[in-house]
Amino acid sequence: MNTRQFVLRETAMLAIGEAICTAVMIGIFAVGGYYSTSVLLGGIVGCIMAVANFFFMAVASESAADRALSGDIKGGKAAIKASFGMRMLGMAVVLILFAKSGICNPIAMVVPLALANIIITVIEFFRKSGETK
Q1: Rounded to whole angstroms, how far apart are CA atoms 38 and 44?
Q2: Average pLDDT value for residue range 105-118
Q3: DSSP assignment of 84-133, as one string?
Q4: Domain extent at residue 32
Q5: Residue at 27 is within a domain
Q6: Pick from 13, 8, 22, 16: which is nearest to 115 by CA?
Q7: What pLDDT, on a 0 to 100 scale, did the predictor assign at position 88?
Q8: Half-sphere exposure at residue 7, Cβ-oriented, CA atoms within 13 angstroms
Q9: Lowest mean pLDDT among 17-26, 48-57, 73-82, 87-96
Q10: What angle do CA 44, 56, 20 make, to 5 degrees?
């Protein structure tokens, strides 16, 4: 499997996990009596941000690995640092704008971002041995 297919497959698996966990989170808000449209929108925005962050991180890592293989290690490191900075800045701007506007519940936006690491760990735990790119 080439690296582009691997990145897309991993991103799809994360997106499915994020959708399930975000639905559970929204259900917990509903059971607790705190459900509102802002919770739903916050969950959707947080889920999209988590998946987009993973996708762009994977693409930047793939690009840096390609640069390192061609001998440009410093360029690969710089690309990773630039990608990290742009992704964090973009997520901060989106979080602040949506939270300050009152459109989205801030907690519902942040929880899917925190769940991404757990979902990735679960995906890796159930991966068959030898199943890599």
Answers
A1: 10
A2: 95
A3: HHHHHHHHHHHHHHHHHHTSS-HHHHHHHHHHHHHHHHHHHHHSPTT---
A4: 3-124
A5: yes
A6: 22
A7: 96
A8: 15
A9: 73-82
A10: 30
